[in-house]
Amino acid sequence: MFHATIAGTGRAVPEKVLTNADLTKMVETSDEWITSRTGIRERRMAGPDDILSDFCVRAAIPALAEAGIEPGDLDTIILATCTPDHPIPGAAPVVQQKLGARRAAAFDLNAACSGWLYGLHVADGLIQSGKAKNILLLGAEFLTRFTDYTDRGTCVLFGDGAGATALKATKSDHGVLSTSIHSDGEGSTFISMPGGGSSFPPNRPESRDKGLYIQMKGGETFKVAIRSMVDVCKEVLAESGFTTADVDWFLPHQANERILTATAERLEIPPERCVNNIARYGNTSAASIPIALDEYAREGRLKRGDLILITAFGGGLTWGAALVRW
Ligand code: UT7
Predict the structure, then answer these.
(1) Ligand 1: residue whose CA is nearest its atom 48
(2) 265: which of 50, 71, 111, 170 lies 20 to 30 Å off by Cα?
(3) Percentage of residues in the chain with pLDDT exceeding 70?
(4) Given a cut of 90, is residue 22 above it in pLDDT?
(5) Which CATH number goes with the domain that contains 253?
(6) Is 274 a catalytic residue?
(7) Residue 126 to residues 12, 66, 191: CA-CA distances in angstroms?
(8) Which residues on adjacent β-strands are paired with residue 6?
C-alpha cells in the first residue's frame, strides 16, 4: 500500500529580526524574562509589503526541486495557516496560481499551531486512498500582523515564516509510519482571535476592541499542551510498535522552550535528540515544524533512516503526532 514520504523541504522567513531588546522598548518586559520563560531571543517579522502566499512560493520552490516534482505534477496543495492573505479566497489557490500548479486542488487548513501536523494526516490519507501522488504541504503564518503589541503576555512569543514539505507516494519503508490527530472545543477560549469572523464581523464595533488580536490563556494552555502531546506521542509509538528509545529526533511544535523540554523529559528523550530552534524564530504556529524540518535537513542533521517523532498542540484545541522514517 502507498503512503506519504517527505521528499523535499524548504523555508522562507522575513528579513526583519525583532529582538527581545526591541520588545523592551515596546512593552514592560526584559530579555531575561523572555529568555528564561520561553527560550526565545528573536523572531522574524513580516514587512508592510510582505505577502504570505509569496513566502509560501519561496519555501515551495526548493522543496519541489529537491523532490523532483514539477509544479504541474502536483495534484494537491494544502496550506496550513490561520493568517491567510485574506478570508476569501483561501491562500492555497493563490499559491497554486503563483507556482503554476494548474492540476492541483488547493485548500487552506486551519488547525492553528497543529495545522501542519493535521495537513500531514490528511495528505497521508489522500495518498493511502490513491487520490493523490504528489502533494505540497505548507505551514505558514504572519502572526505578528495579529499580535497586540501592548499585551506583554503574547507579543513576545510570535514570529512569522513559511515552511514547505513536498510529499510523494511511496511503498518503501521510508516516510509516514503513523499519524494521529485530536481536538477538544472545550478549550476553545484558551487561544483565540474572536473578531473578523461571522460572530464578530468587521462591521460591529466590539470586533475592533481587541477582537482582531490573538489572545491566549498562557498558564492553562501550558499544562494541557504538555499532557496532550505526551499522550498522543505514546499513541503513535504504540501503534507502530516503537518506543521512545527508538526515536532519533523528537520534533515538537516550537511554542515555548519549557514546553519542549518538559514534553521531552516526560517521554524520556534526552535534550540532544530534541529539535529546538525557538531562540531564533519564536512561535511561528503552523510554520514551526516545516521550518525546523528544513533547517535540520539542510544542516545535515537528519540522516536517511532516522526515526522522527513529530508533535504539535494549538488553538481549537487541536493536537497530534506523527512518526516518520526519514
Ligand atoms: O503555540 C500554541 C500553544 N501555545 C502555548 O503552548 C503557549 C503556552 N504558554 C506559555 O508559553 C506561557 O504560559 C507564557 C510564556 C505565555 C507565559 O509564561 P508563564 O510562566 O506561564 O507566565 P505567567 O503568564 O504565569 O506570568 C507570570 C508573571 C506575571 O506577573 P505576576 O502576576 O506574577 O506579577 C505576568 O504578568 O510574568 C508576567 N509576565 C511578564 N513579565 C515580563 C507575563 N508576560 C511577561 C513579559 N515580560 N513578557
Answers:
(1) 152
(2) 111
(3) 100
(4) yes
(5) 3.40.47.10
(6) no
(7) 26, 22, 29
(8) 167
